Amino acid sequence: MIDAYFDSEEYSKIDFSKTKIKKGEYDNCTFVNCNFESIHASNIQFVDCNFSNTIVKDTAFKDVNFIKCKMIGVKFNEVNPFLLQVSFTECQLNLSSFYQLKIPNTKFTSCNLEEVDFTETIATSCVFNMSDLKGAIFYDCHLEKSDFRNALNFNINPDKNCLKGARFRKENLAGLLLDYKIVIA
After folding, report:
1. C-alpha 123: how far from its chain's center?
2. Fewer CB within 10 Å: C terminus or N terminus of the chain?
3. Is 91 exposed, middle or buried (0-12, 13-18, 19+ CB in 10 A)?
4. What whole-number distance in Å separates Cα of residue 31 and Cα of residue 130?
């Protein structure tokens, strides 16, 4: 249930740890140099929002949907992991970090995840649908039952990650073999 609707608003230099964010849907809003540290952003939907230089340390994201959001370089590994539940649709997440985070059942749909750090992430049963993973780092990850059938440009070494039950298409298996320097023709 959406409490309020905010359209095309800009929030600049707001410290949401001191000023409470209103629950609702934020459509085409921009958050510039805002501090989300230690807030509870539960049941909020962000659509077409820009999170430039956003600090999310200890922020609680519970059932939060990000749609068409620009979230470049966001350190999700600093969020409050308790009951973390997020989804991303058509988001720019380049250079972000999920380092050592537990993100089971997370959906990434048509996202740009270039050079995202998934090192030691527990990403079981995740879906990477039509998402570009060029240069994304997968090392010591738990990717069991995750769906990479429609993922693009990934490089995942099966010797360095847990992949039991993960799903791939035969057309994108090359992404599992890149570290072996095998030529696939």
Report:
1. 11
2. C
3. buried
4. 26
